[in-house]
Amino acid sequence: MSALAPRASLPIVMSNAVKASPSDVRRKNRALIFSLLFPDHQYSRAELGRLTGLSRVAVSDVISDMIDEGLVVEGGTESSASGKGKPATLLVLDTTRTRTISIDLSQDQLIQCAATDILGRPSHRMEVTLGPDNKVNLDAIVQLVEQMRAELPDDHDIIGIGVACPGALKDGVVLESTQLGWKNVDLAALLESRFHIPVTLVNDSVAAMTAERYFGQAGPNLLFVKNDKGIGSAVLINDEAVIGDNHAAGEIGHISLDPVNGPLCPCGKRGCMEMLLSASALREQLHDLDSIQQRTQIVADAGRQFASALAMPIGLLDISDVCVYGPADIINTTFLETAQEQFDAMARSQFHARTVIRRCQLGADISLRGAAIEAVRAYIVH
Predict the structure, then answer these.
(1) Is the per-residue pLDDT at 80 higher than 70?
(2) Chosen CATH of 217-359 out of 3.40.109.10, 3.10.180.10, 3.30.420.40, 3.40.47.10
(3) Average pLDDT over the chain, rounded to whole?
(4) Omega before 39 cis (within 30°)?
(5) Which family does the UniProt entry place this protein in (predicted)?
(6) 3-class DSSP state for residue 269?
(7) Cβ(224)–Cβ(215) below 8 Å
């Protein structure tokens, strides 16, 4: 996959414009250069200058700092097209020196933790199983990070802690998570005060979407749906994640499909999507059924209901790519085929090309890896 290139923007002329501070300019320059090198591209200093529009001095200053910080390393060389002159030194991301600690709070029955490299690839893993009530305890999270740090040969190269968490989040605070039973929990402040490492808190579906964008099959426009214990989604438009006025964009799991007769949801409404169509809800429906025909019919009906619920935002946002993460026994061929048929019937028109629904292929580490990447990105612009 090609790197996410910086997008051009129209100049804005303001009579009383505030001049950007040197630190703001430097952060912007770091972000531009990092975005070009991430995840596995290599460029010379001169190429980075041409691609970003930065001066040779500006590029050299940023690269020098990033090398010192263990973010970038000089790799091979590249000869000029003419074959004349000194070969240019190529720069790549350094995956050997810096680490993040990544935590996934969205899993059923356990908390996952990993130390990862700058690309979110785990090198050390730990997990803690939850009790019968499946409640996530703050003390357990702290202890898990402590144990992970103790396992690492040198924790001075940890540049951030990334946490993937279900629910509505803002500025490091879990505003509300029905899955965890949390409300107004300042998780980032708790971890930062304990470990003195920057903490990035990200919605688990947004984290998964980030991993899918960089390491999966997604383009710059995507509707990503995570269907497991609950249902959450994330939307990417022109490579920008949609957050929402209340930092709750993507919380489709709590849109009611049957507000009168549906089952009661922890959020207080009846008939929410995740009470009817989540993998855990569907497994309950399938549990006592021996008939393959009945089981297939339930999954097929779920696929149609799922697509019907998403047809409106698909048409509104003109998105052609829907990626669904979920267990293979639920998000299977039957589910995807019936959902595709419903999309074709409801959303396809002369104004909107076919929306394709597909299963995510990245595996169980998807939110863990996405949270690590978000922690790295936050460090880059710190």
Answers:
(1) no
(2) 3.30.420.40
(3) 90
(4) yes
(5) Belongs to the ROK (NagC/XylR) family.
(6) coil
(7) no
